[in-house]
Amino acid sequence: MRICWYDQQQLGVVDDGKVYDVSAALDALPAARYPAAPGDLLISHLDGLRAAIARHLPHASSKPVAQARFLSPVANPGKIIGVPVNYMDHVVEAEADRATFTDRYKGGVTEQGFFLKAASSLVGPAEGVALRFPERLSHHEMELGIVIGRKVANVSEAQALSCIAGYAIALDMTVRGPEDRSLRKSLDSYAVLGPWLVTADAIADPQALGMRLYVNGELRQETNTAAMIIGIAEQIAWVSRFYTLYPGDIIMSGTCAGVGPVVPGDTMHCEIDGVAAMDVAVRLAGG
Ligand code: MN
Description:
Bound molecules: manganese (II) ion
Structural class: alpha+beta
Number of strands: 19
Helix content: 10-25%
Number of helices: 7
Order of helices and strands: EEEHHEEHHEEEEEHEEHEEEHEEEE
Largest sheet: 11 strands, mixed
Radius of gyration: 18 Å
Strand content: 25-35%
CATH topology of the largest domain: Fumarylacetoacetate hydrolase, domain 2
CATH superfamily of the largest domain: Fumarylacetoacetase-like, C-terminal domain
């Protein structure tokens, strides 16, 4: 199933080139109470919600996917986790330009550890990326986005994939420079997720997905998730030894070679086989 938030925060299911409005299924969610349990409410109850969605789908109104404005398929993540230098060809390009890739000297992916991006940086593709420092380099990093589906800590690698709700295209946008990653990668709109969540049951092998990123039609990044240095199950097992993962937490699982700058007016086109394709516009913040 492909689940999305679109237009005026409607809940949608994407099928056959159309998005179906299944917002009525949200009535099946428990009423919000304060203080809420950690985790995104919809992702926390996704399994139960699927029955309600199936009931509403046959009589839902629809529109072509091309006419929908897609928001992030996770509305309220507790945290966005980044996996650094997780493709060997990106290690090579970072090693070759340490002036730009300032964190690279800290070692390999498990030596450096994962980093966090502010949850407030998250947007959907329709919202676009807004550059605040156009005089500095802002790079695109195309990544497979992994959305956690249930609370988990100290999970084994063997069990790790079973706690995934689904997958989406992720952009880990980055200002290059000397500051900590958590600052440079947390600007508003510097985490893009979308255009929809493909539930885990619909992806036979998440370690065999081809993906590409184009800027203004020019191919910049191309890889396959088979080329990850540490795979998805190991990522979840490794990081869950440090902290608990909650429903709606997002892992951006690393980028391949070809990262490069974007400027206002650019359009990034990203595609992951079996997941989706999406366009993301770049503009000047405030513009
Ligand atoms: Mn990244």
